[in-house]
Amino acid sequence: MQDITRRRLLWSIPFATAAVAGGGFLAMLSGLRKGNFDPREINIPVINKPIPPFSLIGQPPSAGFNQQELQRQTKPILINFFASWCIPCLTEMGVLQQLSSHIDIWGIAYKDKPDAVSGFLERNGNPYQKIGQDPEGNIGIEWGLSGVPESFLIMPGGIIKWHYPKPLSVASTQILLSLLQ
Amino acid sequence: MLAFGIDSPDEMLKNTQQEQRAQHLGSQLRCLVCQNESIEDSSADLAKDLRKVVRQRIVAGDTDSQVMEWMVDHYGNFIRLKPPFTFTTALLWFMPVLALGIGCIIAFVTLRKRKHIEAEALSKEEQKRLSELMKE
């Protein structure tokens, strides 16, 4: 190789590295703005895994539910962990209402009090077919919860098909609905 | 002794040996919502809940690796502050060796080139100029 070519090639290495890194950062930043990249998103390994063993007492007037009952369902169920004290949960209530005409949603009130949950549902509407209580948050841990709200799509037989660790948006419900077809 | 973020002494196990195991395990587990703190260091709610799970499992008779397995099973490898060696983390683990290797190659090439230049004999013209200079 010619000396001059080699020198040029060596010179171009730092510039190429900077260009590649810059491109990567630009993609991250635009993803952050568009909402398809979130560095804080926690992806737990639950997809295509069976639901964990659990049993919940009901939030009156709803009866509670457990692992066996969820496994027995013949249509998909959306499990939604929420809490009356959680502001992002409030923001997804509208989306959940709309979604409830397409899929049955079972709510799990996470670290909450029955009275506070009743008040929350009276004010914001109730999209849930059933509501269970997880006052200590133990069931949440079994599901790999890192906060509220979080949603899990459960297929008949009790297999987790989809998990969304953030408030549901219109865009994310479209992904969910496409999975139901 | 390290200072840990345990919120209240009630959280600690009475059995000191078990408590030490729990603290050692907890210091290797990431508090997922605080990004880079261990669950022993963090006072986040999730960290507190996970500390409780570690202690419950230890009391129930789990070994350290069984507790770790439970955590990875539920929360993924991200919960381990020290990433395991897998296909996706291979580059991460090999990087120090790789960087050292690349450095060695660069150093070797440059040094050899330098020696090569030094060893080159002076041309006739240069020789003449040198002797002229020496005379002055």
From TrEMBL, chain A:
Gene3D superfamilies found in the cross-reference section: Glutaredoxin
Keyword entries, A-Z: Cytochrome c-type biogenesis, Disulfide bond, Isomerase, Membrane, Redox-active center, Transmembrane, Transmembrane helix
Domain Thioredoxin: 45-181
PANTHER family linked: THIOL:DISULFIDE INTERCHANGE PROTEIN DSBE (PTHR42852)
A Gene Ontology term for the protein's cellular component: cell envelope
GO molecular function, one term: isomerase activity
InterPro entries named in the record: Redoxin (IPR013740), Thioredoxin-like_sf (IPR036249), Thioredoxin_domain (IPR013766), Thioredoxin_ResA/DsbE_sf (IPR050553)
Primary location class: other
Taxonomic lineage of the native organism: Bacteria, Pseudomonadati, Pseudomonadota, Alphaproteobacteria, Acetobacterales
Name of the protein this chain belongs to: Thiol-disulfide isomerase or thioredoxin (TrxA)
Keyword Acetylation: no
The UniProt record lists the keyword Transmembrane: yes
Annotated GO biological process: cytochrome complex assembly
Residues annotated as transmembrane: 9-32
Localization: Cell envelope
TrEMBL record, chain B:
Residue ranges crossing the lipid bilayer per the database entry: 90-111
Keyword set includes Cell cycle: no
GO biological process, one term: cytochrome complex assembly
GO cellular component: plasma membrane
Key words, A-Z: Cytochrome c-type biogenesis, Heme, Iron, Membrane, Metal-binding, Signal, Transmembrane, Transmembrane helix
Family in the record: Belongs to the CcmH/CycL/Ccl2/NrfF family.
Name of the protein described by the UniProt record: Cytochrome c-type biogenesis protein
Species per Swiss-Prot/TrEMBL record: Commensalibacter communis
